[in-house]
Structure formats: C-alpha cells, structure tokens
Design a protein that fits this description.
single chain, about 80 residues, rod-shaped
C-alpha cells in the first residue's frame, strides 16, 4: 500500500498467462522441438519485458517519493525563514 496516498500500488504490467495456458497456446505437449524453442523464447521475452516495465515503474515511484520529500523539506525551510 502506498503510504503517501493510502492507495494500493497497481501492477504496471498485464497479467502473465499460466504456464499451462502458455504451453497449450503453442500446441501443448504434442509440439515439436522447434515449436518448443519458439515457445520458450517468447516466454523469456515476455518475462524480460515484464522485468523492464516493473523496473521502470519502481524507479519512477522512488523518484516521486524522493521528490515529495525534497518539496516537503523546501516548504519547511521556507516556512522557517518566513517565521
């Protein structure tokens, strides 16, 4: 849960298919070696894409949190100077 806004943190990626559904979409257990290699390559590509999107989301979230902290500190300093 987001401590600043009280909202749940949403997953930035679309849901992953189950392994069984993924294998079935490529022909299930009756697939040949070339089809399995394609299936495996596409699965790892999907995982890499998910890892990149999640990494960008977490990085952006961290930058936003730091920026809010800096703005709060600046506001406190400005109030301290004016008082």
């Amino acid at each position: 849960m987001d401590g600043l806004t009280g909202r749940l943190i949403a997953d930035p990626c679309r849901p992953m298919p189950t392994v069984a559904a993924w294998l079935e979409s490529y022909g299930g257990i009756g697939m040949d070696a070339a089809t399995f290699d394609e299936c495996e390559r596409d699965w790892y590509r999907l995982l890499d894409e998910r890892r990149r999107r999640t990494g960008r989301y977490v990085d952006g979230y961290a930058v936003g949190t730091v920026l809010r902290g800096v703005l709060a500190a600046v506001a406190l300093i400005a109030v301290g100077i004016l008082v």
